[in-house]
Amino acid sequence: MPYYRWVLEIQDDDGRWSRHDGGGSTPDPLEYDGPPRRAANHLRDVFVRTLSQPAPGPRAVRIRLWDGPEPTGEPQAETEWSRE
Fold it and tell me: In this structure, are residues 62 and 23 in contact, taking their beta carbons and an 8 Å threshold?
């Protein structure tokens, strides 16, 4: 089972970004087993659904994901969503 380290970044309506560290290394982010790109997309979809209630939710969501226990170097996958 892969271990991923992820960071969630959320942009509010004023254009400010906030960063939320995914904590320590997480086995199977949100119980998802797959390669880094698909795991990042899965996290994005889950967070967009969760954070959009109540509407309108964040202006944008960005996920950065590293394969392994430490976020070193460039992430193996990045994905974004925006309501604009």
Answer: no
Quote the CA–CA distance of 20 and 44 in Å, as a whole number.
13
The residues, any chain, with a CB within 8 Å of residue 81's CB and separated by 6 or more, are 44, 48, 60, 61, 62
For the four alpha carbons of 58, 36, 26 and 49, in that order, the dihedral sign comes to positive
Q: Residues near 40 by Cβ (< 8 Å), separated by ≥ 6?
A: 6, 63, 64, 65, 77, 78, 79
Please list the pLDDT of the chain residue by residue as tens digits (84 residues).
Answer: 567 888 899 999 999 999 987 655 545 555 566 788 888 898 888 888 888 887 788 999 999 998 877 778 899 999 999 988
Asked if 79 contacts 41 with a C-beta cutoff of 8 angstroms, the reply is yes
The predicted model scores a pTM of 0.77
